[in-house]
Amino acid sequence: MKLHLRMLGLGLATVLSSFVGTGYASPKPGKLDPASTMVITNRDSSDLTLIDTKTDQIVGKVPLGQFVNPHMSMVTHDGRYIVTAGTHTNEVIITDFSNLQVIKRIPVGQGPEHFDISHDSRWVCIGNFEEGTVSLIDLQEMKETSRISGFYEPHGFSFLPNGKKVFISNLGAHELGTVELANPSLPIRTLVGSAFRLAALNPGEYLSEIKGIINPTLTVDGKFAYLADGDSGEVAVIDTETQGVVATIKVGNQPWRAYASPNGKWMLVPNNGSETVSVIDARNHRMVGNLKAGPGMTGINYVNGGEKAYVIASGESAVYVIDLTKMEVVKRIKIGQNIKLETAATTPDGKRVYLTSSTDNSVYVIEADGDRVHRIPNVGSSPWAASIMHGGDNYCH
Amino acid sequence: MRIAKCFWVLIYFLCFSTPLFAEENQGLSEKVKKLEAALEKKDSEIGELKSMISDLSRKVDALQTLPAGRAPEGALVTRLDRLEQKTGQLINAPVITEQAEEIKKFREFVCKEGHLFSEMPENGICPMDGTPVKQREVLRKVKLARRESVAEKIEAALEDEKKKNVLVGASGTGVFQQILDSKYSKKTSFAEGSLDLLFISHPIAYTTFFVDLEAIGGNGPDQVVRSNAGLNGDAGSLQDTDGVDRVQAREAWLGGDYFNEQVKAAVGKIDLTNYFDTNAVANDETSQFLSTAFVNNSALQQPKNGPGAFAFYDTKESLRLGAGVQNPSDSGTAIANRPYFIAELDYNTHLFRGLEGNYRLWGRLNRSRADDNKGFGLSVDQVLFPSFTAFVRYGLNQPKGAVNKYAWSAGFEKKAVFSVRPLDTLGFAFGQQEGTVVKVDTLSEIYYRFFLTDHLAVSPHLQWLIRSSRTNPATANGLETEKNVWVAGLRSQVDF
Prior knowledge:
The structure holds two protein chains of two kinds.
Chain A: H1 2-22, E1 37-42, E2 47-52, E3 57-63, E4 70-75, E5 81-86, E6 91-96, E7 101-107, E8 112-117, E9 123-128, E10 133-138, E11 143-148, E12 154-159, E13 165-170, E14 175-180, E15 183-191, H2 195-201, H3 203-206, E16 213-218, E17 224-229, E18 234-239, E19 245-250, E20 259-260, E21 266-271, E22 276-281, E23 286-292, E24 297-303, E25 308-313, E26 318-323, E27 328-334, E28 341-346, E29 352-357, E30 362-367, E31 373-376, E32 383-387
Antiparallel strand pairs in A: 1-2, 1-32, 2-3, 4-5, 5-6, 6-7, 8-9, 9-10, 10-11, 12-13, 13-14, 14-15, 16-17, 17-18, 18-19, 20-21, 21-22, 22-23, 24-25, 25-26, 26-27, 28-29, 29-30, 30-31
Chain B: H1 2-16, H2 18-64, H3 75-92, E1 97-110, E2 115-117, E3 134-149, H4 150-164, E4 167-179, E5 189-201, E6 207-217, E7 248-258, E8 263-270, E9 306-314, E10 319-326, E11 340-352, E12 355-366, E13 373-385, E14 388-397, E15 404-415, E16 425-435, E17 439-453, E18 456-471, E19 479-495
């Protein structure tokens, strides 16, 4: 009996302390502004945490269900829904932003992770990573309308601004798939990089692991897609009209993916093999140079309209600051000791970056002016991805 | 009052309802009959049900009274069997499995701008841009329905990792030799040791980078018993004058197998004797005969290891042709000047009772010597019985400018002399070589190699050298025997 009482007391204390510690305020349905609410996806607690970017207070939580293991979330461009990939339960979860209630669970294929939402907020294209298929979901009818096969670890997705096509990168192959929504069952395929040549010369290396393409990154005008191929160390530039390769740029070893600056000038590509960041002029597809950075880079976030970039070096729990007007690394911000930085999102005004840290269940906020950092603790277990409507650099890894 | 009412009702009933009653009476009577029939039927069915319940009760009683261990019968038995089967499957399959992944090669057809097709487009023309398509092999990771255990996946990953890494091997040889002749009373015992570190990597497909680093300490009995034959092929100290051991790169070459493994070639610092004048049973001083004369032909007169190249063409049908060139100096300067050339034709056959035999014929040209000394030789090993292999070597040189005029040797290797020691080896060899200063060395050696483990072997050796150094018409063969030396030795060999 005594033990039961103690356990009850301990439980109550834990619950109370968690509320006190987080400063969690009850959500007020209809009051949250999706344009200023950061959505944090917590993998291990299987929930979403909503942070008001004006106050940096946690203003809402959305429990998604047991063992959902969500990978990433996005707010639809009209602000009506939060779409979440339930990786473990093989479903796409739709949450109504106005009342933070889960309104639909749509079954998809095995291991859904990354996705993109069309600009008219109607379509979701999500990759079933373990199954090698892609699901198209109609948000008007709230159902899966197509499941397209022929992909190899489909990893990254980008809708054209006009919503007619979606580009899909394969991590388990060196090719891009393009799905036209008018005829989704027949994806157009494009070879990226020259890994096939390297594989012919060194089959032992390339037959054991494939480092394909993380993401198709569109230029701001949507005319070109940049695809970094991990094995060949090359970035292919694809004409989004023809899906043909118009340029191939040699970057560093094991490039991660390209990140487009909001001013349309630059594409930055972190190279994890050589621990550099390649700077490409996105207007003429030419390499500008390589900047020294850190290990285990998982993302780049632009601020101040693309004049500055934060490079997340997860391998050393730090962020490198690149001044793109000077084209140099101007600072290294040590975020913490032995913490694992994941991904980040930039606010729509380009003034703040919200960076998730999975090991200490925190989100770190970096102010673009002055590079000040402060921490929002106890956001949930293993925060993995951050996303905000109309925000810059909404990406996952 | 109530009685009066009943009276008037009765009168009314009797007066007006009598005809109706008569008609209804017949109908009612039929209904009653039907009901009686139905009741009889139900009674019968109830009787049957009672009988069934009674039977069932008896069966239940019988089941309850069954002795322990006897299985019941019928549907229950089937269900129990299924349950047991499922339980057994669960118990016997505790291995955690995961979906398998594999990287596979695919043949694809690629347009100029990278558009990909699994099938060749019509007329080989790209439907996207009208350019000719090219065929390419690409790699993709595929998920397989096959399920692998975690242990299998770990093993495969370790194996993959091993292939990517540099392979390292080490070989250590220790030799103790004792001259059993009283003429060498002061210096009669010798210890010698060598260590080889071997590195192999594959920097590009079908290509090998090989390095052999060696350190040797001790010169063996050859420093006092000078002979053409050599009593220790492993000796030759690399120690500096200050007593510090040096390590030398015995070999360091980049080579590989090309054209469907039919051509093997390498370039770098090489030891030609590892590739020419080879022999299955007499070619390794660390595991076979210790004497230099039984490791390679004394007439070969190869230069010390240095920069060079070799190539072999293998028909894969018994014949193999090889050629090698090497600079006689290890300095690295003027490497094209006056090199040493060698060419060899190898024939592999199973003509003798289906047993393997290797016949090699070589010719050499040593341009490092002023007179361009030439020579030729052969090296044969033939399996005569499944565990018995004989060998013969012969070499003849142009006398002018040669160190040895000729050399020959013969012998055998016998495996599993004792049935309880199937991996032990016995070897015996006998041979002669004549130097240009009229010296004939006659040498014989016998060894027994004890196999202890895959990494360790020990072998006692006994060598007998008869060395003649000058002419003497008084003797039967015109030579005067100067020394008759017996040497006993013990060799240990470690490989890993």
